[in-house]
Amino acid sequence: MDYAPEYTKREKIKLIILFVGLGAVLIAAGELWLFPSITRLAEQPHCYSLFGLNGADYLWHLLLIGMPISIFLILAITMLPMAIKGLIQAQFPPKGYKVFKPTPIRKGMRGQFMAGLLMFVIASPLLIAIYGANQLDKMPEIEAPQDSIELCSHIHTQNQTSTNH
Fold it and tell me: Are the CB atoms for 126 and 132 separated by under 8 Å?
């Protein structure tokens, strides 16, 4: 049985350092900016609007469409070329791709099945986004509380102060 070529130890270390570095940047961005923003939006969605949507609608769009589309784009950019080559070559992993551990090369129908399975994994978040887009009109409305004027004016004052500095 043939095995796919493996990364050298040096290549593995470089890739791991790259992935850990990218992961650290993403985690830091999430902790410092993304998660606090989403928390503020989730706590008082009626105080925000973006692109003509109120905060509650924006939150539903973000959860049901935005996140799955983002995951789809990342998977498509990183793995779609491998899946397409695997389908064309009827081999998985396709020629020219290295692996981290000893991996037998699957040829013929088994190789195309594995490449097709990878295509399905890549397409799954897109299917979830399409389903989510059809569910948007069923999401509950979030009513603004009676004291929302005072709460929202406090938020807008904070936003103006932070942008002026």
Answer: no
- Residues 47, 40: Cα–Cα separation, whole Å: 10
The one-character DSSP state at 14 is: H
Whose tokens are 């990364």? That residue is 7
Q: Regarding beta strands 106-107 and 53-54, do their DSSP bridges make them parallel or antiparallel, or are they unpaired?
A: unpaired
| Predicted confidence (pLDDT) at residue 165 exceeds the cutoff of 60 | no
Angular region, 108: left φ>0, alpha ψ -120 to 50, beta rest: left
Beta pairing partners, 49 = 54
Question: What tens digit of pLDDT does each residue of 58-91 get?
Answer: 778 888 999 999 999 999 999 999 999 999 999 9
3-state secondary structure of 153: helix
Each residue of 114-144: pLDDT tens digit? Answer: 999 999 999 999 999 999 999 988 877 666 5
d(CA 5, CA 29): 35
**Residues 122, 79 contacting (CB under 8 angstroms):** yes
**What are residue 106's DSSP bridge partners?**
92
Count Cβ atoms below 10 Å from residue 109 Cβ, excluding itself. Answer: 10
